[in-house]
Amino acid sequence: MIIRLILKNLRIILRNPFTILFLIVAPMLLMFIVGIAYSGSTLSNINIGISGDSNFLTSNENSKINYIPYSEIKICDNNLRASKVDFCVDINLRKDQLGNILSANVIYDIDNSRSELSNLLVNLMDNIIKKKTKTITKKTVSNIFSGVKETVTFMENSLVSINSLENNLTFARKRLETFNVTYNLLLSNFKNHSKIIKENSNNITSKINKFSIEYNVLKSDLIVLKSKQELLSNTIEQLDENNKVLNSLVESYANEVNTNISSYISTSFLKNFTDSISLLDSYFKEYEDLIGKIDLNSLNDLNNLSESYNDLFDKMNKLEVSLDDGNKELSDLILILKGKELELNLLKIEITDKLTNFKKLSSRDESEITEPIVILKNNALSNYKMVHKLAPMIVMLVLLFIGLLLSSIIVSIEVNSKAYFRNLISPVKQYQFVIALFFTSLIIVLFQVGFLLFILSQYFGIVNIYFRFFAVLFVIVHLLTIFILLGMLIAYYFLSLQFSILFTTFIMLFLFLLSGVVVPLELMPVAIANILYFNPIVLGEKLIRIIFNFKTIGWFNFSDFIIIYFQILILILVLSYAVIRRKKKLF
Amino acid sequence: MAERTSLIKFINIEKSFRNVTILKNLSLKIYSDEIIFIIGPSGSGKSTLFKILLGFYKPDSGFIYFGNKNLVYNNNLIRSIVGFVSQENSFYERLTVEENIIFFAKLYGVSKKELEVRLNYLLNLVKLNKYRNIIGEKLSGGMKRRLEFAISLIHNPKILILDEPFTGLDIKIQDDLWKLLYEIKREGVTILISTHILWIAERYADRVVFLHNHKIVKDLNLKDYNYNIDLKKLFYEVIKE
After folding, report:
1. CB contact under 8 A, A422 and B104
2. Residue A231 burial by CB count (10 A; 0-12/13-18/19+): exposed, middle or buried?
3. Running DSSP on this structure, what letter comes out for residue A59?
4. Is B140 on the interface with A (CB under 8 A)?
5. A416: distance to nearest CA of chain B, Å?
6. Which of A218, A381, A388, A495 is most buried (CB neighbours < 10 A)?
7. Separation between Cα atoms, residue A534 and residue A69, nearest integer Å
8. What is the pTM of this model?
9. Can you state the angle between helices A407-416 and A430-459, rounded to 10 degrees?
């Protein structure tokens, strides 16, 4: 009997297309869609705001992440609180002169009210940063190794240069040693000559002294001689005068006088003349005496000395030539040494450069190499509790369950009641009944939601709903409008209360499972996620979360409301069709 | 004898759904102060005729005149002159008797002043004055039907349509309702009834209209038969033709 009853039940069930739809097709469809939606494993449709050195991350090719540059992290933070971006990153890089990144300070601003997504994003960013860290570390280490290699190459080249320098210096040293031998020889020669010169100089000095004395004597003699000579000159002048007188006398006393004159001459003039001659002789004698007084040895000495000097001059000339040669060689060596000095200076500069580079490596570099990127994480919400995270979703689920189910039940009861028929034969327009049903549902649901918010506010202290009353009311009324219209649509479409409730439950489950509560939308496949962003729970949860958690006027997200109004419009149109259809079915 | 003035006049009404003819060239005059039974086998077009009269359907062709006004495209006029009592009670069981009447009065735009008078009148008429504050679901079967009548009459219609109003009711209730219907008739309301219960028609009808094959095949004034006619026999004769 039980088997018969079961068979009868199954037969009835399977003959009802709606039952088959709900029992078989709907769960399969739900599982299929949910299965696809939950099959994602990578994040997509992520908006990450970046301030600071934005190129640091944006250069990272990841088409599923939209990087939005901001001039300041604060602006990004405001947009994070308005859910316009999912994550904020501020990057400050330290670069070397060549523009290579040495290290980075990274700040994450995290919306911890969306902890699942935020954790995933932190992991994602950490992975990107990890790669960047590797790149930076690799680059830095590579730079260091490159520096070391460069230094080694430089050292090797320097070694060649030093060897060459050493050879050159050895050569210069040998040349200088040779020069030194020559120089020493020259020096001893010079010393000998110097000694000779000194001796000669002494001789010359004594000779000069002697000559000086003699010269002085001679000079005084010459003065005497000069005076004698003057005297002689005077005598000669006198003689000349006398001679003139004589001549005139001659002329006047020609012959006669000759004898006289001769006598005269022989007497006075000759006497004078003879006296002068004798005087002159005496003078010459004196002069000869004086000359004789000059030592002939001294002249010989002077001659010898002159020869010695000449010899010395020859040697000195040779020495000069040698010294000139030596000087030239010395100049060459100086030039070589100057060149080497230059080389040494260059070597020194390069070594200084290398040293400077290596000096730059400090204990800070060690940490920078191993951990070049320092990350600071800031939570958008301080003192964040689990209930803060759950509150928006709880409110949304209440809105969904109450709004959808209650409106569906209210409308279904009404349109399935016998009295509803009487409404239709009254002169009142059909849309007025629909509007009245909508507002009836809205009032009831608002009462329930208001009660829930009161509880959340009073006992959990999550939301100060009074402070943001109109914002909360504004958003809730919009979302409720969608859910109520959807519930009404289901109620009008299905001709029985049972199917309305069943379908409403299915829709609720569908919307709930695909709302990002279980799996964040950002983890779902892009195509599915793009559709599910239109899920009113997703929109509503976002708006309510912003108002509850961030107390910001940024809750007014225009694009979200455009979607909401669009959905409302679509629902109104479809509901109108369902109402007309229902009326036709009724009659 | 001068010809009676018709209250509502159907002229050549035709109606079909998806190329299936439901009413074919139907013409019918309904007069004041009469109880008309529309009788016919299932699918003969009774319900369609009522729905056209209630304004739910528009005829494909033909006219319906109320006086000299065409009702076809004037639903407001139709609904103000037509009252309807369905087979099942069509009031809100969670509202009281008074609340139900007031609610539907408001739907029909009855003024507050008129409503007061009308409410008391109807409650007395259907003998529910004592139960005016009782919620609908707590009323007995007979009272519920009487409330249904009261609601149908709230806007003072000229014509009252009853679609199988006695199905499933016991004899006592049926008698009570007939008493009520006579009262209503006395108020000047024309009553149009669809039923399969032929003995009731024999007993209470002023006029019986047979519908068969989508048209009126008989239109009998029972007065002409001294209210003594075998409608069952006639019914079988009609459907045989």
Report:
1. yes
2. middle
3. T
4. no
5. 11
6. A388
7. 26
8. 0.67
9. 150
- Residue A151 CA to residue A310 CA, distance in Å, equals 64
> Which candidate, B105, B91, B108, B82, places its Cα nearest to that of B161?
B82
Give the number of beta-carbon pairs within 8 Å between A and B: 41
Which residue type occupies A493?
A: Y
Tokens representing B152 are 């149908």
**Optimal mutation site among B22, B46, B56, B76, interface A, most CBs of chain A within 10 A:** B56
If one counts every other C-beta atom within 10 angstroms of the C-beta of residue A470, the result is 8
CB contact under 8 A, A427 and B76: yes
Q: What is the DSSP string of A95-149?
A: E-TT--EEEEEEEEEE-GGGHHHHHHHHHHHHHHHHHHHHHHHHHHHHHHHHHHH
> Which residue from B minimizes the CA distance to A580?
B56
Query: Best mutation site among B75, B82, B92 for testing chain A: the one with the most A CBs within 10 Å?
Result: B92
Q: E-strand spans in A277-385? A: 373-379
Task: Please report residues of B whose CB lies closer than 8 A to that of A424.
Answer: 56
Distances (CA, A) of A518 to A65, A86, A514: 22, 18, 8
| Partners of residue B190 on adjacent β-strands | B159
| Residue A138 bridge partners (DSSP) | none
How many whole angstroms separate alpha carbon A232 and alpha carbon A62? 134
Q: Token pair 């919306």 is at which residue? A: A111
- Are B91 and A422 in contact (CB < 8 Å)? yes
- Residue in chain A nearest B53 by alpha carbon: A425
| pLDDT value for B1 | 47
Q: What is the pLDDT of residues A81-110, one digit of tens each?
A: 777 888 888 888 887 777 777 778 888 888
Instruction: Give A177-235 pLDDT, tens digit per residue.
Output: 877 787 777 777 777 776 776 776 677 677 767 767 776 777 777 677 677 767 767 77
CA count, 13 A, side-chain hemisphere, A517: 21
Residue A262 has pLDDT above 60, yes or no: no
Q: For B102-116, how does the pLDDT look when each residue is reduced to its tens digit (9 = 90+)?
A: 999 998 889 988 999
Nearest CA in chain B to A416: B90
